[in-house]
């Protein structure tokens, strides 16, 4: 058993109310460090605060990565100093706390991070749940690859045809350049399905026009026969923008797993 330390990343949607919501964890020991933002927690914050833009929190992941890149030897002083750049009125870091890493073969800092996320951050399902979350479904299947940074979540494309930064739900980096959005289209009205598909198609076109990327959109659609025409139109719209459309979380996860494996194999050969 060895000692480790961790801090909780928190977000305050309304500083006036000062209600802090846990959205991530950074954990370290004398050997290394691990961190993660929980995608389902971020989606909860956005969902429960309608005035908040969907991409409002997605800058945090690259910001934390940039802040921690300069830390060679993990220590509370070094990490705290680097993390100052992400702290502001809405984002805060808790005081450092003690935890431990076990001695069993399957115990690691990554498994400690998983345990802390499950205990402190991951939202508990409620009886009044908003239903199936396609982003969460894909993220659950990809959890090991997300921990290893083989797949990144909430990846920001700084280049686009319009010049607007675009965020995709999942991305496998250079060598594969595969992006995937998980889109909830199991809606009750045909016009809502069309509007959401149009918005996603515009983003896809904006990204692929300025980046060498293979774009996938996983769509969770209603099986209501009255909406079959709307679903078909949404599929055509997304394909016309330059994306391949998938209809199962497992298929979406497998496509990213394959891209990550192919990228790792190419990197290993070189």
Keywords:
270 residues, 24% strand, 2 domains, five-stranded mixed sheet, disordered C terminus, 40% helix, 9 helices, Rossmann fold, alpha+beta
Question: Care to give the gist of this entry?
Answer:
The chain is an alpha+beta fold and 270 residues long. It folds into two domains: 2-121, no CATH class; 134-269, Rossmann fold (3-Layer(aba) Sandwich). The chain is 40% helix and 24% strand.
Walkthrough of the structure:
With 270 residues, the protein is an alpha+beta fold. It folds into 2 domains: 120 residues, no CATH class; 136 residues, 3-Layer(aba) Sandwich (Rossmann fold). 40% of the residues lie in helices and 24% in strands. The protein contains 9 helices and 10 strands. Strands 1, 2, 3, 4 and 5 form a 5-stranded antiparallel beta sheet that branches. A hairpin with a 4-residue loop joins strand 2 and strand 3. Helix 5 crosses helix 9 and helix 7 packs parallel to helix 8. The protein is globular. It starts with a strand and ends with a helix. The C terminus is likely disordered.
Describe the SSE topology.
Elements: E1 2-11, E2 21-28, E3 33-37, H1 39-48, H2 60-69, H3 76-83, E4 91-93, E5 97-101, H4 109-121, H5 134-141, H6 143-147, E6 152-157, E7 166-172, E8 178-185, H7 190-208, E9 214-221, H8 228-240, E10 243-246, H9 249-269
Parallel strand pairs: 8-9, 9-10
Antiparallel strand pairs: 1-2, 1-4, 1-5, 2-3, 6-7, 7-8
Helix pairs in contact: 5-9, 7-8
């Amino acid at each position: 058993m060895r000692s480790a330390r961790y801090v909780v990343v928190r977000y305050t949607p309304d500083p006036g109310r000062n209600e802090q919501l846990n959205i991530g964890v950074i954990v370290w020991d004398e050997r290394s460090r691990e961190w993660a933002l929980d995608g389902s927690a971020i989606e909860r914050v956005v969902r429960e605060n309608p005035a908040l833009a969907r991409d409002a929190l997605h800058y945090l992941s690259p910001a934390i990565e940039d802040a921690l890149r300069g830390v060679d030897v993990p220590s509370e002083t070094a990490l705290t100093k680097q993390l100052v750049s992400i702290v502001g009125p809405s984002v805060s870091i808790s005081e450092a706390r003690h935890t431990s890493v076990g001695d069993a073969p399957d115990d690691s800092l990554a498994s400690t991070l998983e345990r802390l996320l499950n205990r402190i951050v991951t939202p508990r399902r409620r009886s009044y749940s908003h239903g199936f979350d396609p982003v969460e479904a894909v993220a659950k299947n990809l959890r090991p690859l997300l921990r290893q940074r083989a797949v990144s979540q909430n990846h920001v494309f700084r280049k686009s045809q319009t010049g607007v930064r675009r965020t995709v739900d999942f991305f496998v980096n250079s060598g594969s350049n595969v992006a995937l959005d998980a889109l909830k289209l199991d809606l009750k009205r045909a016009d809502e399905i069309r509007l959401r598909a149009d918005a996603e198609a515009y983003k896809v076109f904006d990204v692929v026009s300025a980046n060498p990327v293979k774009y996938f959109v996983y769509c969770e659609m209603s099986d209501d026969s009255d909406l079959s025409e709307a679903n078909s139109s949404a599929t055509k719209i997304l394909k016309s923008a330059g994306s391949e459309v998938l209809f199962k979380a497992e298929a979406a996860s497998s496509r990213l797993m394959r891209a990550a494996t192919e990228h790792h194999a190419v990197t290993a050969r070189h």
